[in-house]
Amino acid sequence: MRTAYSFLILFALFSTALKAQKSRSEVQVAFLADVHLQDLYGTPEDNDYKGVLNPKNNKPTLLRTMDAQLHSTRIFNENYFAFLAALDDIAKRGVRYVALPGDYTDDGQPLHLKGLARILKEYSTKYSIEFFITTGNHDPVGPFAQDAGKDDFLGTGGKRQPIFSKEGLHKQDPATELPTIITKDIAKMGYLGVTDYLGEFGFLPKQVYKFWGTPFSTYTSDDYSLDKAKEAAKLSNRMYDVAPGFTVPDVSYVVEPVEGLWLLAIDGNVYIPKNANGDASDPKNYKGADLGYNNVLTNKKHIIEWVTKIAAEAKQKRKTLIAFSHYPIVEFNDDASPEIEALMGKGKWQLDRVPQEEVAQAFADAGIKLHFGGHMHINDTGIRTSQKGNTLINVQTPSLAAYIPAYKLLTLKSNNIAEVETIAIDNVPRFDELFELYKMEHQFLKSQNAKDIWDNAILKTKSYHEFTDYHLKELVRLRFIPDDWPTGFKEFLTRVSGYDLILIANSEGIALENFMNHKNDNVLWKNAEAKAKSFTKYNKITLNDYKKWTGLDLITDFYRIRSADQLVVADVGSERIKQYQALIVAFEQRKPNPDDTLQNNLGLFLTILDKFLNGAPADHFTIDLQSGKVIDLRK
């Protein structure tokens, strides 16, 4: 009996040891994209100005106006608190490695770079977290430093407070603005400034790294040494010709922070000269880098060669290679980009940022299996298999500064299995810390009878999740609908109800506009109602539920679904999604009419929505890094 009991104890201890060993063998990396940190409580070194006094905490605060952030695809202020909440969550989970795929500051200004460095050092010291950064189109905004500033900081009395790095860059409007503040800490840094402030977070080698290299280093992991890496890390040794006569930095690097894991941090920025005969040292003579990898294929070809070399070495050394960069390398609209262009028009919806298919093919054949990107502020997964049979998975990491605020957590398991989980940052301490200041701004705008004043109901939100959702709603109302949508179609869709749409889908032999003009025609309307009633009953949906939402609700949910992907269910609801899916099916059965522009546009819109609702898993899933197979863990 004692022998059996002793055996059970030994077996239990052995099992516990095995579990602990398995746990230790799993490596986790968190990916935080598009943080867009603005240091709310930073202080310029060359100016005494510290911001507007917040009556809630009696602290001077450097914040942007609510009006500015409700016209932007990102939040400028509250993301500061969301970043801290995300780091706290990461620390609580015991994650040791964190990658930031670009756009970690507002625009690469010293004020915010110093604030970011301070925060990262604090968490690194307190929790032993190693941070790895790569560039984005906001940091740096160009290869070299340039004077700049913003005219939409919030100032005393609710007026705007312009802050610029140099006199003469801004002309004050005394009616709505305070006198301009001048500080060099608001200039936009180039590569030199960014790497000076943030070099210790991956841009430069460390003693603790097992390997570190650049596209220009000549050593391999076999003959690696820290001294060689330090020499290779000098910015002067990391230059290339983006065009003849235009030499700029490339701060890509590969690092082995822990045995067996290689992180490939790609600098996807390509700053093409505006004027080939212009001054190569003029920071204003370079285009922005927001087009991403489409320009890499033409003006930064050495990246593909380097990635191919690193991937081959990683495979030969049996290292797990995980790539990350700011830009997506696979189409991120669930393959709906052609329909989006047909509906919205060329150049709309940031379609110029969609990577060409050649990009995915090139990186897949170079040996990249898994890549984490940002830039688009959306949650998405893209999968491509090249003609040679190589599969590439591109994981789009949401932004903490937009709906839906989240980060990606990668867990590398045994047998080449990677688990990816999307961690939403819903509840953020102090997210409402600035609301009293926004009330002051709103009152000032009302006193000026300003046009299109933002809805102050956003100040009643109870969580950061709700705040970002409201931000998206206002963004749809104030910017997306006016700027992106075809005039006739947006006028139609914003005045119909869901009930109108399901009846339209079940009507026959009449143009959409004519059908809407005959709502009082009992024969047409009742025939459509009868057919819709039968259709919804078959699909186990209540017809009257379509009366509970409008076309504007549909447009808003359209943007929610595109931004949050599978995470959207919590806000839209499974029943509403089921109604949308049934509407799509019903409309597909409607007889096509090439001469009915409205019907064609509605068809395109619903096709796009259908693709958004049926993309690859984007919440919690596993990837077989050998076969490229993706398994949805939500099902």
UniProtKB/TrEMBL annotation:
<protein>
    <submittedName>
        <fullName>Metallophosphoesterase</fullName>
    </submittedName>
</protein>
<keyword id="KW-0732">Signal</keyword>
<dbReference type="Pfam" id="PF00149">
    <property type="entry name" value="Metallophos"/>
</dbReference>
<feature type="domain" description="Calcineurin-like phosphoesterase">
    <location>
        <begin position="29"/>
        <end position="171"/>
    </location>
</feature>
<dbReference type="InterPro" id="IPR004843">
    <property type="entry name" value="Calcineurin-like_PHP"/>
</dbReference>
<feature type="signal peptide">
    <location>
        <begin position="1"/>
        <end position="20"/>
    </location>
</feature>
<dbReference type="InterPro" id="IPR029052">
    <property type="entry name" value="Metallo-depent_PP-like"/>
</dbReference>
<dbReference type="GO" id="GO:0016787">
    <property type="term" value="F:hydrolase activity"/>
</dbReference>
